[in-house]
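Progress against Task 2.4 (sequence-to-structure conversion) is shown through the following example record, which the project officer requested during the mid-term review.
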Amino acid sequence: MENHYPDYYKPLSCVKGIYMIIDGNTGKQYVGSAYGTEGIWGRWNTYALTCHGDDEELLKLYEANGEKYFDKYKFIILQILPMKISNKDVIDRETAYKKRFLTKDFGLNNN
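Structure tokens generated for the chain above:
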């Protein structure tokens, strides 16, 4: 991520979005949203730097298993959204995806 992979940085930093992380160790899913100033790139960069992105459940996994555990994580964009969309609308869409994929009941989302 430090190299800002130009092929990815520009298109991912200018859009908001909804994404899924799949834990390749367990198959559990996590749905999240990106709506900061650097869009999806900025959010995913936080995961690259911390392995948990400050999410409670992912932080627990990190503390229990260490950094190597996250080598099997896969990131998928579920929906790309324009930067002009409100953060509330992004969060509402994230909530709908959590319901669709049941990630609060059977996945890694705790809220």
